[in-house]
């Protein structure tokens, strides 16, 4: 697999780049399911960390970390632009977010993986917890990783 060189940084909530990342999330994660975000949902994300991956100054991927308690963050909304998938962007975003979470003092990461992305997270050493469940109308698994 080719791995492209990207820059990853935290996006300030409400910034132009963060707003652009909502469009990417919508296109990759919601539109294919016939869904969209509502304003209340988006506003509640001011307490999440928004990590953006850039390839040649263009947004290539996004990942959010939501603090659940003092020890745990939830990884959510992991999305890579269609034409940038399978080039190592997702993997680098996850690795960056793990270092980021460690620096903030978190001990574990949890997430709800779409069944279609299960192998991606298994390769990054996330473990399945419990049975398959439905979220946003599609099968998911809870996964966790100790940092
Ligand atoms: C899933 C997603 C985030 C992965 O990001 P990516 O940049 O395409 O993945 P990478 O190139 O970093 O892949 C890392 C490894 O995982 C594998 N992989 C990536 N996506 C995969 C998938 N959907 N199923 C199985 N394996 C996958 C790659 O082949 C690669 O394997 P390798 O290390 O053995 O070569 C991205 O494809 C995406 O946005 N998909 C649509 C939205 C989505 O499903 N998001 C996750 C919601 S839980």
Protein topology:
Blueprint: E1 7-11, H1 16-30, H2 39-43, E2 49-55, E3 58-67, E4 72-80, H3 89-103, E5 108-114, H4 118-123, E6 127-135, E7 138-146
Parallel strand pairs: 4-5
Antiparallel strand pairs: 1-2, 2-3, 3-4, 5-7, 6-7
This protein binds coenzyme A.
Keywords:
binds coenzyme A; Aminopeptidase; 38% strand; 147 residues; single chain; alpha+beta; seven-stranded mixed sheet
Provide a brief overview of the structure.
The chain is built from four helices and seven strands; from the N terminus they run βααβββαβαββ. It has 147 residues and is α+β, with helices and mostly antiparallel strands. A seven-stranded mixed sheet has the order 1-2-3-4-5-7-6, sandwiched between helices.
Structural notes for this entry:
There is one protein chain. This protein is of the alpha+beta class. It has one domain (7-111): Gcn5-related N-acetyltransferase (GNAT) (Aminopeptidase), CATH 3.40.630.30. The protein contains four helices and seven strands, in the order E-H-H-E-E-E-H-E-H-E-E. It has a seven-stranded mixed beta sheet with strand order 1-2-3-4-5-7-6, sandwiched between helices. The radius of gyration is 14 Å and the shape is globular. The structure holds coenzyme A (COA).
Helical element count?
Answer: 4
The largest sheet has its strands arranged as: 1-2-3-4-5-7-6
Unique ligands = coenzyme A
Supply the helix-strand structural class.
alpha+beta
Identify the CATH class: Alpha Beta
First-last Cα distance: 26 Å
From the 3D structure, determine the CATH topology: Aminopeptidase
Report the strand count: 7
Instruction: Specify the helix fraction band.
Output: 25-40%
SS strand fraction: 35-45%
Weakly predicted, low-confidence segments: none
Q: Any idea what the radius of gyration is? A: 14 Å
- Give the tally of structural domains: 1
Q: Which word captures the global form? A: globular
- For the report, how would you describe the main beta sheet? 7 strands, mixed
Task: State the CATH architecture.
Answer: 3-Layer(aba) Sandwich
Topology pattern, helix = H, strand = E: EHHEEEHEHEE
CATH superfamily heading = Gcn5-related N-acetyltransferase (GNAT)
Mean pLDDT, to the nearest integer, reads 97
